[in-house]
Each structure stands twice: as structure tokens, then as C-alpha cells.
Amino acid sequence: MVMDYDLLVDAIYRAGADPNEWSCVLRLLTGAFHGVCAAMHLGDAASDFSFGITYELDPESSEAYAKHFFAINPLNSPLTRIPAGKAIGDNELVPREIYRKGEFYNDYALRYGLNGSVTGILDSRNGHVSCVGVVTATGTDPHTAEEVSAFQRLMPHLRRAVELNRKFRATKANAEASHGALDQLNFGVVLLGENGVVLRANAIAAALANSANGIRVVQGRLKIANTGAQNRLDYLVGCAVNGVGPRGGPLLIPRAKGKPIFARILPYTGVSYDGVPAVHAIIYLRDPEASPAPAVDHIAMAYGLTSAESRVLRALLNDSDVRAIAENFGVSVATVRNQIARIMEKTGTTKQTQLMRLLFSAHLPLAEP
Is the pLDDT of residue 171 over 70? Predict the structure, then answer.
């Protein structure tokens, strides 16, 4: 499969700032995962079903699905048992031979030329699922394990973008409340106004803005100690604010000690509100030196790890010595090795280095430049 991961991540975070951009995300997902259409559904307690946002989905099929076929879709019940944050192919939910014998496939899927799908669970609570999925055409093969894994890689970004939508919506009701909501995010966010002036930095971004990290706010502007990084920042901010060139992009911010800070600059094209300064661009910041512990919870939820497996995964962050971990937990080395093997099987990794890479990449929403 061919996928421009960086392009997709940029588009996802643009949609996080402006919900109108989700149609672009669905278009890119459809192309990347050889689909014919894509849809996003945000589940709630309402009895009526509706796709929130769609791309190339036949309006007639959407209406028919909402009126009748949603209720008999054999995939719906299994989806409610999939944890939030996980991507899954429909052939993993219901065996293909059983799926093709049902009314849903024969009277709906075949009628509208639809076949398999890969779905990402954005949220799941009280039996109501929020999800995003790409559907393939009749006659095509189901999504491969590699494609589902690629979709999984996008899930942390998709979920955080939806969360950003919720946070930014608060701006309309109460600007101060929205500022507090931004502080609840587990990554840095800097809002830039006209000409790149800093309007607001959430708590994590403010904590990162100090001389030790090589980045500061000086007279209302972001300044980087490294001249090359500063020049690239100025260029990317100018592009994002003015909607020209690459319209933003990734950036590494060097610091005196430790790994560089990852940044991603994107334009903001959302709605402005009375009394709230217009936001023209957003900078997302990721500190790879930050404690990765919260990622264990995300991984455990997304991949269905047991409490014992989560405990071992957390221990691996601090010590790769299996014997030391076993001794600390008072269990045998074989038990720890079996738990690690199950963790890697569930997460689709084959080496501990791959497992650690997955853990750190899931911690915060920015892909490395």
C-alpha cells in the first residue's frame, strides 16, 4: 500500500482545529486504504443513526443504512466490544463466509457495491461507538493485516484530533473555559495570531518554553536558540499563517541536553468568535524526554492487555532485564517471558525494540519529522 503518513497526520490535526477539514481526512484515508468511500460516526445516546461526515458515500445508501440496515448490520455488536483506540478489519469481527450469507451483505452491501472495511474505534462507552472507517468495493479483497496495522498507527492522531474538536468548541461558549480545556491536553499547544504572535500556550507548552529547552517566548513571539531551527520556524509559521508554500510542517527544536523537541506547525482555518483574538496557526509540541507512563494505559486499552501484561509493559520502560522484572514481581522468568510474548502478539510486534517504539509513538500525537 502507498501512504503519505506525514500528509495524513497533518490533515488529521488540521481537522482537529477545524472540523470542516474532516472531509479531506476521509478522502486521504479512502485513497490510502484502496477504498471507495469513508465515513465517521460519533455515537451518542440518540436512537437515530447518522453518519457525521462522509466521503463518496452514496446519499441513498446512507439513508437506507440509517433507516433499516444499521439495525441488522452483523458488525455492529462485535464493534461495541472493541476497545477505544483500536483499528480492526471487518473480517476479524465476523467470519467472511457468515457475513456473506446475511441480509445485510446481500440486500445492502451488494446493492451499493460495497465490500470490506477497516474501522478505527474513536470512543466506546455505554454501548455507543464513535468510529471512522474506510469501505472497499465489491470484488476486492479484505484489508490485509499490514493495512489494519497502518490504520492503527493513525489512531492516536485521529482520537486526539476529535478531542481537539471538543476543546475548541468550548471557545464559542466561553473563551476562558476553553483555555482551561487546552491545559488538560497531554501535549503542548501554542495558538498563533496574525503575523505569528503567540496568543495562548497551554500548560505543557508553557513549561517547555524555557532556556534549558532552547525555546522561549520573547515579546510575544516564539524564539529558538538554534539559528537554523529559528529560520525554519519562521518560514513554517509564515507559510501556515499566510496559507502559502507547504502551509506549515514538522520541525526539530534542539536543546543543550537530551533529545530535541518535536514540533508541528499547522494553519488554523476554524471559526473566529466575538471577543476572541483570531487564531491563524497552531503549533503542537512533543517532548520525547517526558515520562511515557500514560502511554501504557493507551496501549493497554487499544490492544486489550490484561492488568498483568500492562504491569510488565510498564516495567519494561525502566528495565529490559527479564530476570530483574521477574524477581521484582515475585514470579518466574518464564511467566514474564510469556507475558511479553502475549503483549507482542497482541500489538503485532516481534521485538522488544519494536514494542518500545510503539509505546513511545503512542504517547504523544506527533510523528517525528
Answer: no
Helix ranges restricted to H, the chain: 5-17, 22-32, 59-64, 70-72, 76-79, 90-93, 96-99, 103, 145-173, 175-183, 203-208, 227-242, 293-303, 307-316, 322-329, 333-347, 352-363
| 35/66 same-domain check | yes
pLDDT tens-digit series, residues 223-245: 999 999 999 999 999 988 887 77
Same domain assignment for residues 158 and 183: no
**Beta partners for residue 117, in sequence order:** 135
Residue 368 included in any domain:
no
- Based on the fold, state whether residues 161 and 18 are members of the same structural domain: yes
Instruction: Say how many domains are in the chain.
Output: 3
Q: Which three cell numbers stand for residue 108?
A: 445492502
| Among 272, 274, 283, CA closest to 192 | 283
Residue 335's domain comprises 293-363
Would you say residue 369 lies in a domain?
no
Burial of 231 (0-12, 13-18, 19+ CB in 10 A): exposed
Q: What is the CA radius of gyration of the chain?
A: 22
Q: Are 268 and 279 in contact (CB under 8 A)?
A: yes
Number of helices (H), then strands (E), belonging to the chain: the values are: 17, 12
Q: Is 307 helix (H, G, I), strand (E, B) or coil?
A: helix
Entry pTM: 0.53
Instruction: Answer with the one of 245, 262, 286 that is the final residue of a domain.
Output: 286
- Same domain? For 80 and 112 the reply is yes
C-alpha cell at 87: 483499528
